Amino acid sequence: MATELMDAIALAYQPSQLLGIPVALVGACFLSIGAQLQHHGVAKVESQTQNASDGLNMKQLGLLLARPSWVVGTLLLGLAIVFQLVSLKLSPIILVQPLGVVGLVITSILNARLSGVKLNRPSIIAICLCVGGVGAFVVIAAVFAQDLPVTNRSLIIILLVLAVVLVLFVLAFLFLRHRFKAIFYIVGAGILYGFVATLAKVAIDRISHREWDWLLVLCIVALLAAAVLGAYFVQNAYSSGPPDLVIAGLTVIDPLVAVTIGIVVLDEAAGAPWWAMVGFALTGAVAIWGVFQLSRHHPQANGETPVSERLTGPLEESSLD
Asked: Which UniProt keywords apply (predicted)?
């Protein structure tokens, strides 16, 4: 069965379109290490200042710039973005974007070793649900979905939907942020980065084909706006949740949103049979359920582990502190 699936994927894509896969895997490694370092920096700042339950303030954001661990983590995340953009240039988003879930496994192992907090059984099951759900989702997508060019009409729809999403998230943050927990910031960042990945793919394709117009400018502006708000949400998620939970949300929700945009807006699954559409829904639901279960059962989630305990381990004693 596995051989038949691999043969189907090989027939669906040209060999050159598979080059982005190893590039995306390297980016996932940078993502996991960078997330661990950024989380450490945010936890360190939070332990030295007031609680960030209402969101990180400007003073705390400034203090992050003085934390070597956070700066190095940010640089590694920058490298992860570069590798992601290269992979998007080489391969369809359906193939490479979900590969970031590999970073969830790496981050979970790193966080357990560095923090000294072992994952419990429900957390391990939740991670397996995330990885398994995304893996099954991308296999179905790789076999039946098509990588189609984004028309002006489709791009306008994506931009309008993103505008509504941005407004809703900003309003929710302004008026309801005192009620937020890590899961809100994680889901929000995952949704926003799903749009970022899609718009990045569009921008790369249009720039490479020298399609300079006002839609490209709007695309880049919207991409930057979503990326900035998403990055702020990620930092707030670090202050109230473990790094592997944050990465779970990003590497699960992000590709599901990106591929869903491709299916619903870009009609990339027009030729898929009905059972494939059911498969998309079920595997996506399993992956998202895994994220929520991880947020519920992770030993470091929901404030079960104090900030001071998150700062123990080899990383606390390193020169990156």
From this structure: Membrane, Transmembrane, Transmembrane helix
